[in-house]
Design goal:
single chain; mainly alpha; three-stranded antiparallel β-sheet; 3 strands; about 10% strand
Length: about 160
């Protein structure tokens, strides 16, 4: 328990950021579910709409109606990132933030899959599949983490 508390204390900022992003994801999805289902799509600019979509699949329309498979995949991703946390953080602060974004996005969409049976998507650029805050977190986190893993070598642990 002391180790867990020490870990929480040393990761206060990333944990607070994750909590804020999860809250933003949840509130935006609830807003989309309530407002956009009642009023329809909202055009903000020529190629930027807010458009309610119930996504039963993964990115780009793959694996439609495979909710249980996608729940399993999300749980495996979350488990792998947590299991690899020490190794990921050896690549520096940017890699740590990338992992936080991936975990946050995965948890946000996992919550939808468990509670609704689908993921609420609503950000629509008209030239890209409709997505949400959690999807953006996963995508940005994956790109950042990939860049960190390709460009840097892990820091070696100091021996006492």
């Amino acid at each position: 328990m002391a180790n867990a508390w020490a870990w929480i204390c040393t990761h206060k900022v990333p944990l607070a950021a994750a909590a804020i992003l999860l809250l933003l994801d949840r509130l935006s999805k609830v807003w989309a579910l309530v407002y956009l289902t009642a009023h329809g799509p909202v055009k903000l600019a020529k190629y930027f709409w807010l458009n309610y979509v119930e996504n039963t699949g993964a990115a780009f329309g793959m694996f439609q109606n495979a909710n249980m498979l996608l729940i399993l995949v999300m749980l495996l991703i979350i488990g792998y990132v947590i299991y690899s946390w020490k190794d990921i953080t050896k690549y520096g602060g940017l890699a740590t933030w990338a992992a936080v974004l991936i975990l946050t996005g995965a948890l946000g969409n996992l919550y939808d899959r468990f509670t609704l049976g689908f993921v609420v998507d609503f950000i629509d650029w008209r030239v890209w599949p409709v997505f949400n805050v959690a999807d953006a977190c996963i995508t940005v986190g994956a790109v950042l983490l990939g860049g960190c893993l390709l460009r840097r070598t892990p820091k070696q642990e100091e021996k006492a």
